[in-house]
């Protein structure tokens, strides 16, 4: 029953009712603070509750901040059934969570409902930063600088900086789940935060964004910059921003997971030396839908930005590339050797995957569908290349091993399936891929023009190899299977491939304009 129907009862009885109505068991919490009004100060406000939680710094005690807002509150909208908390201009942002072990639970408010796989979440507590000073560099929504905090069931929008800011080497093992960050109350329209939806940086470790169930999924969309940023930086030079996991979210879509509501730059940005972070997962519940963002779906950038993994995601309809690895990032992995690790990277306006830069090296792409539909049977091409390796990127590996699940299917793209160009783009290996066919290698899903195109100084690259598992199937493309062009494109090797056949080598799936052409010097 709604709380306005029990007005007049004692405050003690009201708190008991609220405690029994929450969506998670908080009986184990050492301290519970109840938000009873949408004001920005005074007893019962969210600011007051955070300050109360912070008095327990160093205690190791667990703290729960719950909501018991009433329909008589002046900031309740009876049409949307949403309560809006708006920090005031002169008050500044909410205090950072410094005590640790604190849960802010929007699902404790009566009227809220978690997503269940068939229906999106109904969130009824909105935190709106539109009144804060737009020039204030600290004016993010919620700040976390301590370990083991949970933020769930909230709408967080229109802050002058980030929606949620996880900062420093003591910000460890925090969980952000079941929120709408950068959208309106039902996740259907853009009310973006001015920078990132979520920023994790300066040594923050092992934080979880999302989860493996529908109830834990965040919608992180409509933000003016990036959906989720992971940044190492130099504020804590002795630490690394590492071990963070972004899993099971909608990043750039509405709450239906289908309609685009892109972030203003990238969906996910890992940069500044951040290492060993994971985007996605290997089970159905852990895949992110990264769609409709203005630039790249995922960008991995910068020296020292190494050993990150992108697994099991759907990366679609982004305005530039699906994934870009650039500016000296090394040893990152896109995909994996099991079906669950496969990324679907299709229908992006430019290329599926771009690897570029003189020290961008030793990255691996395997087991993905790039330019096909979800089943690997039909074309859903990227607007440019399936995979482009340019700008001097070297020693990268595109392909799988003896297990067919580790092969990339690079087919249906609107330009060549694989493109290598520029001086210094060398010692890359393209082996164990289907380029221009379906996943069984039995019918054409051709790339436009060429299967593989090498030009403009790209040299000493290997297409295939001398092991049985190293072959590429390069068939069904509308141009030539392999085209090497120009006097500086030298020392490239084509060996051990099936070109113009099916996977058995006995039936024809021809490339329209021939198998291999080496031309113009």
Please name the defining characteristics of this protein:
mainly beta; 15-stranded mixed β-sheet; 15-stranded parallel β-sheet; 43 strands; about 525 residues; elongated; about 5% helix
Explain this structure.
With 521 residues, the chain is mainly beta. The chain is built from two helices and 43 strands. The strands form three sheets. The chain has a 15-stranded parallel beta sheet, sandwiched between helices. Strands 3-4-6-9-12-15-18-21-24-27-30-33-36-39-42 form a 15-stranded mixed beta sheet, with no helix packed on it. Helix 2 (46-54) links the parallel strand 1 and strand 2 (63-67). The longest helix is centred in the first third of the chain and has 11 residues, at 11-21.
**Biggest sheet overview:** 15 strands, parallel
Q: Which word captures the global form?
A: elongated
Strand content: 25-35%
The averaged pLDDT comes out at: 93
User: What's the number of helices?
Assistant: 2
* Structure class: mainly beta
Uncertain parts:
1-26
Strand order of the largest sheet: 1-2-5-8-11-14-17-20-23-26-29-32-35-38-41
Percentage of residues in helical conformation: under 10%
The total strand number stands at 43
Distance between the termini: 80 Å
Report the radius of gyration as a whole number of Å.
Answer: 25 Å
Question: In terms of topology, how is this protein built?
Answer:
Layout: H1 11-21, E1 31-35, H2 46-54, E2 63-67, E3 76-77, E4 82-85, E5 102-105, E6 125-128, E7 142-144, E8 150-152, E9 155-157, E10 164-167, E11 175-177, E12 180-181, E13 198-201, E14 208-210, E15 219-220, E16 228-231, E17 245-247, E18 250-251, E19 268-271, E20 278-280, E21 289-291, E22 298-301, E23 309-311, E24 314-316, E25 323-326, E26 333-335, E27 344-346, E28 353-356, E29 364-366, E30 369-370, E31 387-390, E32 397-398, E33 408-410, E34 418-421, E35 429-430, E36 433-435, E37 452-455, E38 462-464, E39 473-474, E40 482-485, E41 493-495, E42 498-499, E43 516-519
Parallel strand pairs: 1-2, 2-5, 4-6, 5-8, 6-9, 7-10, 8-11, 9-12, 10-13, 11-14, 12-15, 13-16, 14-17, 15-18, 16-19, 17-20, 18-21, 19-22, 20-23, 21-24, 22-25, 23-26, 24-27, 25-28, 26-29, 27-30, 28-31, 29-32, 30-33, 31-34, 32-35, 33-36, 34-37, 35-38, 36-39, 37-40, 38-41, 39-42, 40-43
Antiparallel strand pairs: 3-4
């Amino acid at each position: 029953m709604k709380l306005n129907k029990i007005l007049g009862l004692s405050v003690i009885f009201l708190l008991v009712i609220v405690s029994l109505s929450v969506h998670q068991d908080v009986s184990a919490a050492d301290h519970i603070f109840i938000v009873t009004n949408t004001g920005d100060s005074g007893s019962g406000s969210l600011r007051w509750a955070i300050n109360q939680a912070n008095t327990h710094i160093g205690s190791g005690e667990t703290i729960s901040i719950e909501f018991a807002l009433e329909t008589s509150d002046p900031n309740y909208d009876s049409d949307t059934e949403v309560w809006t908390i708006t920090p005031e201009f002169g008050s500044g942002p909410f205090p950072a969570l410094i005590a640790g072990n604190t849960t802010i639970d929007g699902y404790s408010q009566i009227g809220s409902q978690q997503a269940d796989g068939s229906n999106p979440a109904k969130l009824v507590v909105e935190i709106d930063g539109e009144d804060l000073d737009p020039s204030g560099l600290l004016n993010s929504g919620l700040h976390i600088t301590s370990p083991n905090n949970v933020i769930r069931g909230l709408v967080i929008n229109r802050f002058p900086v980030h929606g949620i800011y996880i900062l420093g080497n003591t910000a460890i093992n925090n969980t952000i789940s079941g929120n709408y960050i950068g959208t309106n109350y039902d996740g259907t329209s853009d009310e973006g935060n001015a920078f990132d939806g979520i920023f994790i940086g300066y040594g923050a470790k092992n934080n979880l964004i999302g989860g493996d169930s529908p109830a834990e999924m965040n919608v992180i969309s409509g933000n003016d910059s990036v959906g989720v940023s992971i940044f190492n930086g130099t504020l804590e030079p002795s630490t690394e921003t590492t071990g963070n996991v972004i899993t099971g979210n909608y990043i750039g879509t509405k709450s239906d997971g289908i309609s685009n509501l892109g972030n203003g730059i990238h969906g996910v940005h890992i940069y500044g030396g951040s290492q060993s972070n994971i985007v996605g997962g290997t089970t159905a519940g852990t895949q992110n839908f990264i769609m409709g963002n203005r630039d790249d779906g995922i960008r991995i950038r910068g020296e020292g930005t190494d050993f990150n993994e992108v697994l099991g995601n759907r990366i679609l309809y982004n305005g530039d590339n699906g994934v870009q690895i650039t500016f000296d990032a090394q040893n990152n992995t896109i995909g994996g050797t099991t079906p669950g690790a496969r990324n679907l990277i299709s229908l992006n306006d430019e290329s599926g995957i771009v690897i570029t830069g003189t020290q961008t090296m030793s990255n691996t792409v395997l087991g993905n569908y790039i330019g096909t539909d979800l089943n690997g049977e039909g074309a859903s091409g990227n607007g440019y290349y399936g995979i482009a390796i340019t700008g001097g990127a070297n020693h990268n590996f595109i392909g799988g091993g003896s297990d067919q699940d580790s092969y990339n299917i690079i087919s249906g793209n609107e330009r060549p399936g694989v493109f290598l160009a520029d001086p210094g783009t060398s010692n890359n290996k393209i082996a164990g891929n289907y380029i221009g066919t379906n996943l069984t290698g039995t019918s054409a899903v051709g790339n436009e023009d060429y299967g593989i195109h090498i030009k403009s100084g790209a040299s000493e690259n290997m297409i295939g190899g001398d092991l049985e598992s190293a072959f590429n199937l390069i068939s069904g493309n509308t141009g030539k299977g392999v085209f090497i062009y120009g006097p500086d494109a030298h020392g490239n090797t084509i060996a051990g491939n099936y070109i113009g056949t099916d996977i058995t080598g006995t039936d024809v799936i021809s490339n329209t304009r021939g198998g291999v052409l080496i031309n113009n010097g």
